[in-house]
Amino acid sequence: MAVHAHPDDESSKGAATMARYVADGVEVLVVTCTGGERGDILNPAMDRPEVKADIGKVREAEMARAREILGVRQSWLGFVDSGFPEGDPPPPLPEGCFALEPLETATAPLVRAVRDFRPHVMLTYDDNGGYPHPDHVMCHKVSVEAFEAAGDPERYPDAGEPWQPLKLYYHMTFSKERILALHAAMEKAGLESPYGEWLERLEDGERPKWDVTTRVPCADHFETRDRALLAHATQIDPDGFWFVVPLDVQREAWPTEDYHLARSLVDTELPEDDLFAGIRERVSL
């Protein structure tokens, strides 16, 4: 089960991993916390009045195309996008949005989804949300709460029969190590790297809070990931940042998607190359 804040997040974080496991016969469910109703239109070709007027329905249709491409199941928690407040100081979040929901209210439908789907592994964001969007931070909070509560019959008693997932991971998609490797590979190939300014913003010697513990080989599914990304046409510009690095360069320089093992109820040895390490010995997938 991969828990995400908005439609398109599932295609930009961990999509090739999901496609790899689907190809291996694993059932995969994406849970999307909000409808992305307050997201900006980032593709100039889609920046049209009729799209803006019905952005919620448009993003729902985009999600349907992406989940078909990835081969996953997908469900909505039904909360309202919080938007990303900008300014100094930033404006208050809109009333009724996902990030302002009480934790138990926001977690209850996810606990129900966990108990219904019965995943062995859950994926989510770190405590900063991957980046500090209010919905991403809230997604982290509800995912951790659901992981800890879903197996306890005394918690969320109206949310179905208890089920305890065995491992919880954080996405480490944009690690400094990966960016450096892709940057070097582009320069070696004689191509202009899109990461120059990004690297300048990173402090020298900066150490990430969360180490990468798990690298999942999934280069054969990078093309599927990109097709799923392109399905989110309001968010993804086909001429934009996501597609500057050729797939053959990516496959050679960094053929994995990376994670931090935040919680495990099974024995496993680090580093891992499989989200199900320690689980395969206990259950038949």
TrEMBL record:
Enzyme Commission code(s) on record: 3.5.1.115
Cofactor binding, note field: Binds 1 zinc ion per subunit.
Family matches, as HAMAP family: Mca
GO biological process: mycothiol metabolic process; mycothiol-dependent detoxification
Protein name per its UniProtKB record: Mycothiol S-conjugate amidase
Gene Ontology MF annotations: hydrolase activity, acting on carbon-nitrogen (but not peptide) bonds, in linear amides; zinc ion binding
Catalyzed chemical reaction(s): mycothiol S-conjugate + H2O = an N-acetyl-L-cysteine-S-conjugate + 1D-myo-inositol 2-amino-2-deoxy-alpha-D-glucopyranoside
The keyword Lyase belongs to this UniProt entry's keyword annotation: no
Purpose: A mycothiol (MSH, N-acetylcysteinyl-glucosaminyl-inositol) S-conjugate amidase, it recycles conjugated MSH to the N-acetyl cysteine conjugate (AcCys S-conjugate, a mercapturic acid) and the MSH precursor. Involved in MSH-dependent detoxification of a number of alkylating agents and antibiotics.
Cofactor(s) in the UniProt record: Zn(2+)
SUPFAM superfamilies recorded: LmbE-like
Homology family: Belongs to the MshB deacetylase family. Mca subfamily.
Keyword vocabulary terms for this entry: Hydrolase, Metal-binding, Zinc
Source organism of the structure: Actinomadura rubrisoli
Subunit structure: Monomer.
InterPro entries, per the entry: GlcNAc_PI_deacetylase-related, LmbE-like_dom_sf, Mca
Binding site for Zn(2+): H6, D9, H136
